[in-house]
Amino acid sequence: xxxxxxxxxxxxxxxxxxxxxxxxxxxxxxxxxxxxxxxxxxxxxxxxxxxxxxxxxxxxxxxxxxxxxxxxxxxxxxxxxxxxxxxxxxxxxxxxxxxxxxxxxxxxxxxxxxxxxxxxxxxxxxxxxxxxxxxxxxxxxxxxxxxxxxxxxxxxxxxxxxxxxxxxxxxxxxxxxxxxxxxxxxxxxxxxxxxxxxxxxxxxxxxxxxxxxxxxxxxxxxxxxxxxxxxxxxxxxxxxxxxxxxxxxxxxxxxxxxxxxx
Amino acid sequence: xxxxxxxxxxxxxxxxxxxxxxxxxxxxxxxxxxxxxxxxxxxxxxxxxxxxxxxxxxxxxxxxxxxxxxxxxxxxxxxxxxxxxxxxxxxxxxxxxxxxxxxxxxxxxxxxxxxxxxxxxxxxxxxxxxxxxxxxxxxxxxxxxxxxxxxxxxxxxxxxxxxxxxxxxxxxxxxxxxxxxxxxxxxxxxxxxxxxxxxxxxxxxxxxxxxxxxxxxxxxxxxxxxxxxxxxxxxxxxxxxxxxxxxxxxxxxxxxxxxxxxxxxxxxxxxxxxxxxxxxxxxxxxxxxxxxxxxxxxxxxxxxxxxxxxxxxxxxxxxxxxxxxxxxxxxxxxxxxxxxxxxxxxxxxxxxxxxxxxxxxxxx
Amino acid sequence: xxxxxxxxxxxxxxxxxxxxxxxxxxxxxxxxxxxxxxxxxxxxxxxxxxxxxxxxxxxxxxxxxxxxxxxxxxxxxxxxxxxxxxxxxxxxxxxxxxxxxxxxxxxxxxxxxxxxxxxxxxx
Lengths: 262, 364, 123
Hints:
The structure holds 3 protein chains of 3 kinds.
Chain A: H1 14-77, H2 82-88, E1 94-103, E2 106-115, H3 131-237, H4 240-261
Antiparallel strand pairs in A: 1-2
Helix pairs in contact in A: 1-3
Chain B: H1 2-9, H2 11-22, H3 27-34, H4 39-50, H5 52-55, H6 63-84, H7 87-113, H8 119-122, H9 134-137, H10 143-153, H11 157-163, H12 166-171, H13 174-195, H14 203-227, H15 234-240, H16 250-257, H17 261-268, H18 272-281, H19 303-318, H20 326-350
Helix pairs in contact in B: 1-2, 2-6, 2-20, 3-4, 6-7, 6-20, 7-13, 10-11, 11-13, 13-14, 14-19, 15-16, 16-17, 19-20
Chain C: H1 2-8, E1 12-17, H2 19-28, E2 43-45, H3 52-65, E3 69-75, H4 76-81, H5 83-88, E4 95-99, H6 112-120
Parallel strand pairs in C: 1-2, 1-3, 3-4
Pfam families (chain C): ATP-synt_F
Keywords (chain C): Hydrogen ion transport, Ion transport, Membrane, Transport, Vacuole
Protein name (chain C): V-type proton ATPase subunit F
């Protein structure tokens, strides 16, 4: 029994041996399943990580283009529209909707962008001049925000997967390094205990039989001695038929005893 | 005849403006600017013409800070001019500032409508549209008070009075308010230069009526183009068209009925200049986004660019005339374009978008 | 899944950034002001005068209190100012995204998520 892992507190009986064996089997199956899940998730995770890296770079470019289109607006309008835009914002036109995707039993949310076409807060902005640039800028920014939303999905998936993979790996490790060795230990322990019991029993029986033999031998010797004594007595008294009868009974009894022992 | 007495009152101002005009950036300057690697370089290149004004900027300033400082220079020069002018010239210069005032008032109306602290907005106001009583407007807490203050305190009262009531400010989109005011302003300005005894029949009337007509037409066309796909109805749209200009009245009527870009093109086809613009950008623009981002016409010019170009040409031509305060108008427009150009160039440099850096309008 | 309920009604984006970024994103149509009386905006304009505590508060509001925000966009240079809060915020919802601004190009080294990515792969 390696002390580091320990064993389950069970009585070393054949029944618990059976239980432990079933448990070991279950743990092994579970381990391989979880391992596979973890691998699937990790694969996904790596893919997402790669895509995040790409998307972040892409975002840098997209936002730059968008910022540039805003520069075009201020060139065309010839002034600052920021405040007006901030004040006229009322209802979000650009919204996101969350759906989820199932990856090996993990629900990964995915943001999906959609526009509320009924909402149009800035329809008249730049009416006098710069309207076309503003329109174009809005489109550019809407595309940029789509990229951002995509990135947000990836990032959320990344965080969730990160968490889930940690949990799964923890489970895999727990099964691999704790539960399986412990169950194996327990089985070993039960087996050794059972063997020990067997050996003890064997030894005990051997001892019993030895003792029996010794007792028999002693009893034989006694009987022999008694017989000799009786023979002597008979020889002295001359009553031979008397002694014959009890001897026959005794012989029967002895045979019965032998049968019982082995 | 007008030349005989003009210099008594307006000669100094005109002389000063001609001096200012010489400090405008030239094509050579622009090509130097486009070679710059950083905003600091731009700053250095601007040194000769902007000197002191840029000195306070931190190293590698933001483009908006740069533009702000350049505007400061324009403002201080303009203030000097207005301080030096008298009589009809002063009035003329005041008219120039009304356009900015309209923007400022619109800003304050926006703020008041949303119950923001309008005092914060004062620093966002365009300095040229600043008038002494502007801070008074910030006292107003609701739109009715503001409306009354505007009527009492501002020179814009006539523009409000006829066409907007305080309820309108509540309901109308601020853009419609702004454009209504602007329309009234343009009409008033046009009226001013055509009827004022000092200007009627003078070169000022010649020049300004042409410029203002162009401005009016440009607004009409823009409003029409930009209103497609919005809730602005045709009647409302029509109310925003200034009632003069080369397009007025037939073109305006057609514009008010136009439903798409082709309609607009048809409406303006009577005027050769605008027809040429529409031909240049191609009739199919509008829907697919005009000009820029590489998706537009080959030369990358949008309709607005062409309008700006035309405006600059007209402003430049103003300087061929004499005895008129209209040169101030020309100079101001040129200067504004210059600020926009520099902002554009520095924006391109700051954002590493060199391929479109040439998309500015150089006049000289 | 417990998270399922928490992201169903998240449909807005929020933004904390400089004026240009906010203007641009609002143009894209993400701006939303909740119904009066407590008209809450989902955007905050940060300039040089904005207090860090205000940014902090907005960040907390968007990430903790409001349950209708799916993505919080924050300019990277603004995130720098409240780096601690951004780094310690690890919930999947809402997603916090650091975006570049006009004057501050994107620096992957500072991104809290990318930092985690890099760390995971020991780069």
